[in-house]
Amino acid sequence: MLLAGLPAHSATLIYEAFLSGAPVGTAHLRITRTESSYRIAGTAAADGVAHLFSDWQSDFHAVGRFAGGLPVLLSYAYDERERRKRRVLELHDGVVRQVKNGQVRAAFPVLGGTDVLTAFFVDPGCWHERLVHTGRYSYRIHGRPSKTPGGCEFEVSDEDGGRTRVHVRFGTHADLRVPVLVSTRGLLRGSIRLRKHPPSVQLVRASPG
What we know:
By secondary structure, this protein is an all-beta fold. It has a 17-stranded mixed sheet that branches. The longest helix is centred in the middle third of the chain and has 6 residues, at about 115-120. The two termini are about 25 Å apart. The protein contains one helix and 17 strands. The protein has one helix at about 115-120; strands at about 10-20, 20-35, 35-45, 55-65, 70-80, 85-90, 95-100, 105, 110, 115, 130-135, 140-145, 150-160, 165-175, 175-185, 190-195, 200-205. Strand 12 and strand 13 (about 150-160) form a beta hairpin. The radius of gyration is 17 Å and the shape is globular. It has one domain (about 10-205).
């Protein structure tokens, strides 16, 4: 659901990740949308039992504008750390640049499709077919509505031919359509859940121009 014609919105969403029922991570996202632009920024980190084995954390953002009612990505980046390892990825002007453990890697053209942040938090849907990317990797998604209200069954294929079945239930929070529950199918069952009572929505005034 796009917000063209509506006041600017800014909302914070908190997600909690579980593996076989045990807490393993959290993520905090801030989404700001105006009639002409959007910004998603946040941080994710290992938590719960996973924190006993890993200090992984990542800061990320996606910034874009709307053209003809559709999102157009302008900038995407993440800064991922774990112990002594660090990877910084930046996507800008159609080029992806990376620095891994202080070493500059070769730049390459942006991958096809929609970045994963824009796809799920700005233009979400039960897509029949969609190509999404994380900056480094591409995934082809085939979806169909499930029996759960607001739910969708996705089959996600990676570049190596691996396939994963994922169920996503979408809901409306702060006038934004977002994932409220993501769960994987198969032997190893994981889930990502939107905290039921995120911080209240704040209306923000769009900058002139």
